[in-house]
TrEMBL record:
Gene3D superfamilies referenced in this protein's UniProt entry, alphabetically: Metal-dependent hydrolases
Protein name: Phosphotriesterase
InterPro entries: Metal_Hydrolase, Phosphotriesterase
Cofactors that this protein relies on: a divalent metal cation
Residues annotated for Zn(2+) 1 binding in this entry: 24, 26, 137, 256
Keywords, alphabetical: Hydrolase, Metal-binding
Residues recorded with modification N6-carboxylysine: 137
Amino acid sequence: MGAAAVRTVLGDVEPGGLGACDAHDHLFLRSPQLPGQELDSVAAAAAELAAFRAEGGRSVVQWTPHGMGRRAADLPGLARTTGVRIVAATGLHQAVHYAPDLLRELGDGDPDVLAAVFVRELTQGIGDTGVRAGLIKVAGGFHALDAHARWTMTAAAGAHLATGAPIAVHLELGTGVLDVLDLLCGELEVPPNKVILGHLNRSPDLEVHREAASAGAWLAFDGPSRANHATDWRMPDTVRALADAGHGDQLLLGGDTTTAGARAVNGGPGMPHLLRRVRPRLEAAVGKELVDRIVTVNAGRAFGVVWPG
C-alpha cells in the first residue's frame, strides 16, 4: 500500500505539503439559484488567490461539483501563476442547481451510473482536461434527505469504496448531520473519517457536533461572515468546546465564497478573511498551536488518500 496523498490539479502531493489551507471554497461557481452572482472570471479568481496568498494561504479546496461551472481546465494555470495549490471536486449538489436533462444524463436515480462518473473524474480526469478531482461533494436538504440526496450519496459511497476519496457534504443550514452519518457511515459503510461535514457553524448545536465528532467524522466550519447565520461570533466558543472534548484534530476551516459580491476583490470578505480575521480570533479562543493544526495538518489528513493504481 502506498502513502496517502492529496490530489491537486497539478498532481498528488503529500498531506503535509498543503500549508495554510482554505478547506472549502469556490473559485468558479454557477447556479440558477444565484443569478447574476456567478463566479466565472479567471482574472477575478487569480486576484482572489493572490489576496489569499498574501495573507499566508497556500492551498484551496474547491467544492464546486459536476455541472456547476467549475472550469477545471483553468485550475492548473491558476495554481501555477499564483503559487496556491488547488484541489478540485467531483460530485453533485442539490437538484435545484441543475436542469432536469443533465440529471437524466447522469442516470437520475441510478447510483451506479453516477458513481462511474465520479470515479472517472477522480482517476482519469474531468472531461478532457486531464485534471483529476480530489474529493466528492454531495448535499443534504434542510433537516432531511430526499430521494436526490440518497441517490447522490449512494453514488458517492460507491465512488469512495472504489477510490478512497473523501466525501464532503453540504449540510443545508448545518442541519441533517445525524441523518447523513446514518446513511453514509451506517447503511452505506463509508468510514466516518472519510466524511467531511460542511457548514456546521450555521447550526451551532453542540450536542450534535459532539455526536458527529465522536462517530469519527470531520467537522468543517466554513462560510464565515454570512448575514443572518450564526457564524463568526459563535465559532470560537464552538471550536473551544469541541477541542476541550478532545476533537481538535477533527476540525477544518473554510471560507465558502459563493457569489461575486462576496469576493475580497469586490469588497467582500472573500478568501483572505479566513486568515486575516477568523484565524486570529480563533487563536485568542483556543491558542495558536491548535489553529495552526486545524488549517495545515488537519486539512492534509482530511483530504489525504491512498489512491488506487
